[in-house]
Design brief:
The protein is α/β, with parallel strands linked by helices. It folds into two domains: 5-100 and 293-327, NAD(P)-binding Rossmann-like Domain (Rossmann fold, 3-Layer(aba) Sandwich); 102-284, 3-Layer(aba) Sandwich (Rossmann fold), CATH 3.40.50.720. It has helices spanning 14-23, 37-43, 60-65, 84-89, 102-117, 120-128, 157-167, 183-188, 196-202, 222-227, 245-254, 293-311, 324-327; strands at residues 5-8, 25-28, 49-52, 71-74, 94-95, 149-153, 172-176, 191-193, 205-208, 233-236, 259-262, 282-284. The chain has a seven-stranded parallel β-sheet, sandwiched between helices. A five-stranded parallel β-sheet has the order 2-1-3-4-5. Strand 1 (5-8), helix 1 and strand 2 form a beta-alpha-beta unit. Helix 5 crosses helix 7 (157-167). The longest helix is centred in the last third of the chain and has 19 residues, at 293-311. The radius of gyration is 22 Å and the shape is globular.
Length: 328
């Protein structure tokens, strides 16, 4: 019996690749960069499954080309690169990898928050360039994290992980979300619900954890930056285009707020001459919030399980479009 043909668009943990190779006729894209669109379309013409990344555009043209496709498994929480409506119309379940990266992402958000406030990268550059001549009481001052107010925009699982970490620093935690948490959760995690404008006005640190949707595109732009405290720090580990990058640059340069730490950008990746990279008060890292050994291994395995379940006609362990099963 012929094994189902699958295309894996990037090298992931060997444990997951071995799982897939044992059950399928697997082709692996070995290049560091994503397959170009024309090659991607050519590769999936005869495939029953694909394991994709956020950098792969799975649009209407893709689904029209991949006529034999039975499942898409994406190694990511988000799936804004996939035409979910088209996939659902064609009865193709979309797998993704939530939950397993919550702690790692919150760790990175907290790290960016602290590094930005205490000017870690800027001061390291100062040392490397020979600027450190003596200790000075006015060098590299920044806001305290301990006892400050943290505003969390998007109180899902990662938001709750942030709130848990904030308790260890005696922080007051404000949050906003379209769906307010239960009173039990608010008491358990010491949360105070606010609308977005109130949160921006009151918070010393603002951490973004919302999904990218048409409503959250450029959710944080010029008006929102002007509401923030001059000493505030913004952190984004969600999606780059939740923040208006032109407004971010202008506001940081003018000093509307203190600093930003961003793991995700718009576009992604940033070019080396992007104006944001010229600012001392902006830390940019290359989308590594989930990049712990254990999180990336778990993501790889979950992506493999999703792929194999879909090929076997089983319900995916984590499906982004569960309504597809009601249509069958």
């Amino acid at each position: 019996m012929l094994k189902p043909k699958v295309f894996v668009t990037r090298r992931i943990f060997p444990e997951a690749l071995d799982m897939i190779a044992a059950k399928t006729d697997m082709e692996l894209w070995e290049d560091e960069l994503p397959p170009p669109k024309d090659i991607l379309l050519e590769k999936v013409k005869d495939c029953q499954g694909i394991l994709s990344l956020l950098t792969d555009e799975l649009d209407t043209e893709f689904f029209k080309t991949a006529k034999h496709l039975r499942v898409v498994s994406q190694i990511a929480v988000g799936y804004d690169n996939i035409d979910i409506e088209e996939a659902t119309r064609r009865l193709i379940p979309i797998g993704h990898t939530p939950h397993v990266l919550n702690a790692a992402t919150a760790d990175m958000a907290f790290l960016l928050m602290m590094a930005s406030s205490r000017r870690l990268v800027e001061s390291q550059t100062f040392v490397k360039e020979g600027g450190w001549k003596t200790w000075h009481p006015m060098h590299f001052l920044g806001p305290n994290v301990s006892g400050a107010t943290l505003g969390i925009v998007g109180m899902g699982r990662i938001g709750l992980e942030m709130a848990t970490r904030a308790r260890g620093f005696d922080m007051e935690v404000l949050y906003t979300d379209p769906n307010r948490r239960s009173l039990e959760d608010e008491q358990k995690y010491n949360l105070k619900y606010q609308d977005l404008d109130e949160l921006l006005t009151k918070s010393d640190f603002i951490s973004l954890h919302v999904n990218l949707t048409p409503k959250t595109h450029h959710l944080i732009s010029k008006r929102e930056f002007q509401l923030m405290k001059p000493t505030a720090v913004l952190v984004n580990t969600a999606r780059g285009s939740i923040v208006d990058h032109a407004a971010l640059y202008n506001s940081l340069k003018k000093g509307d707020f203190f600093a930003a730490g961003i793991d995700v950008t718009d576009p992604e990746p940033l070019q080396k001459d992007d104006p944001l990279l010229s600012l001392d008060n902006c830390i940019v890292v290359p989308h590594i919030a989930s990049a712990s050994f254990s999180s990336r291994l778990d993501m790889s395995k979950l992506a493999a399980w999703n792929l194999l379940a879909g090929l076997n006609g089983e319900t995916l362990p984590n499906c982004a479009n569960p309504g597809v099963y009601e249509l069958n």
